[in-house]
Amino acid sequence: MDLVALQEIRWLGNGVQNRRGSNRYDIFYSCHDRHHMLGTGFAVGPRLKSEIIGFEAINDRLCTLRMRGKFYNISLINVHAPTEDKEEEEKDLFYGRLAKTIKSRPRHDLIIILGDFNAKIGREPVYRQYTGSHSLHEHSNDNGSRLVQFAAANNLVVGSTKFARRDIHKATGSSSFSRINNNNQSSFTINIRIFWCPDNSTAFAYTAR
């Protein structure tokens, strides 16, 4: 893998851990200043190291990485949203900061948001404009509804629900107290045009702004 979005790094502070050697990853991280909790970041492999334009550590739930692209530069936004049981105010603050982060990206960048939204997206027909039909769940939880409403407000689509996969590959975690699998949506992309990865195996949609 050339690039991996990381959550729950649990380091302190922010910065870059440069790894020497042809097969080493550089770790860009954005963590809490005093507590070993949360933390987001990116692991960048040797093939992409020279394409990195900049990294911004926003807080322990958000960070961005900007890369050179062939036709457009690419802004990656890595997120770790509050869990379902968190207070409404904490969730509002997270989505407010994410909205500001999107708006602050360079105008012509291709934007891809990825990470862990801790959200269960259902297959409600009312959401179909912003989600696909391949979610693991029938009904959205509160975090899922917030995610779809955020998509609607920012002209986004929840990309991980757009592709058909076996249910076993949709589950990102399971409770130790039950057999219920969780499908915490972790791929969030901007709508309208199509950007193909170099190996032509993955497509992300985005909007030209």
UniProtKB/TrEMBL annotation:
InterPro entries listed in its UniProt record: Endo/exonu/phosph_ase_sf (IPR036691), Swc5/CFDP1/2 (IPR027124)
Top-level taxon: Eukaryota
Gene3D superfamilies, sorted: Endonuclease/exonuclease/phosphatase
PANTHER family in the record: BUCENTAUR RELATED, CRANIOFACIAL DEVELOPMENT PROTEIN 2-LIKE
Stated name of the protein: Endonuclease/exonuclease/phosphatase domain-containing protein
Organism field: Anopheles dirus
